[in-house]
Amino acid sequence: MSTPKLLTIPADKMHKTLKRILLQHQFPKKRAEECAMTFTQNSVDGIYTHGINRFPRFIQYVRNGYVIPDAKPTIVHRFGGIEQWNGNLGAGPSNAIFATERAMKLAQKHGIGCVALANTNHWMRGGAYGWQAAKAGFAFIGWTNTTANMPAWGATNPKLGNNPLVFAAPYGDEAIVLDMAMSQYSFGAMELAVMKNEKLSVVGGYDKDGNLTDEPDKILESWRSLPVGFWKGAGLSFLLDVLAATLANGLATHEITQKPAEMASSQIFIALDLSKLSNFSSISSTIDAIIEDYKTSVPIKEQGHVSYPSERVLATRLKNSQQGIPVLENVWKEVTGFL
């Protein structure tokens, strides 16, 4: 099969194009700016599956009424450093930006802040909010539940969400960010591999006959993605759903699955103000020492390179900022078709 054609789109052009489309779909200016920037920055960082590639589906959700352009979060309950909010089916990226900012404000007052957000929409790339908090000097933990797209360990039918989890810490002028789904590959990554006619680098799930496979189309057909760490990842997914639904007083995975699309998710945003810690002045040197030791790892391959979480993102960000963002031609055609 032929390799799909790639275009190179400057970040500024992508941002302006997406913002224009959002404004045409009745997004208020601030929310159009936030969402356009989120989709663009995710693409600049190389997370195309939750950047430009996801944008057409986002617009379709808006047209279907699953995402309400002018909806904003409203407070439901607060006690100390914990708050519960209703996302009112607003745009996931804007709701998540707000919740992260609110968690940081709570952390400045209490040392730690937790915002539990119910009835919200797909936040796209959870790591974006880890970067947001960490670059402001906060440690961050966040997660979301999803529609059922992964079987429990030992089962064949999907009952678990792949419930992405984010950890982030400040590091110099940047951050160390881990953003991971509970499935070996996110569904966005598998969809991208199908679009590019590529196999996965390791097995990512089962085909419909129960055989482990590295062919993403077969996994998407069977809905039997492989949990990270096998039974451990399945157990972690289960608990993330329990905590998201109970803390936010929102929907759980089995309830989201009954919706016409992945919508009305429950999300958790936790920020920690590191400046409140007794060892704040030595945190930077502690992280330096951890990375220095980590970098003494012996690569399997002679010219191999061992990277810590988000290290490769920085290199991709620099390259795409300077040279433009690689975009599949058919994806860009679909995006610009909304104009």
Automatic annotation (TrEMBL):
Keyword Oxidoreductase: yes
Organism superkingdom: Bacteria
Keyword annotations: Oxidoreductase
GO terms for MF: 3-dehydro-L-gulonate 2-dehydrogenase activity
EC code(s) of this entry: 1.1.1.130
A family per Pfam: Ldh_2
PANTHER family: 2,3-DIKETO-L-GULONATE REDUCTASE (PTHR11091:SF3), OXIDOREDUCTASE-RELATED (PTHR11091)
The protein, known as: 3-dehydro-L-gulonate 2-dehydrogenase
Organism of this sequence: Runella defluvii
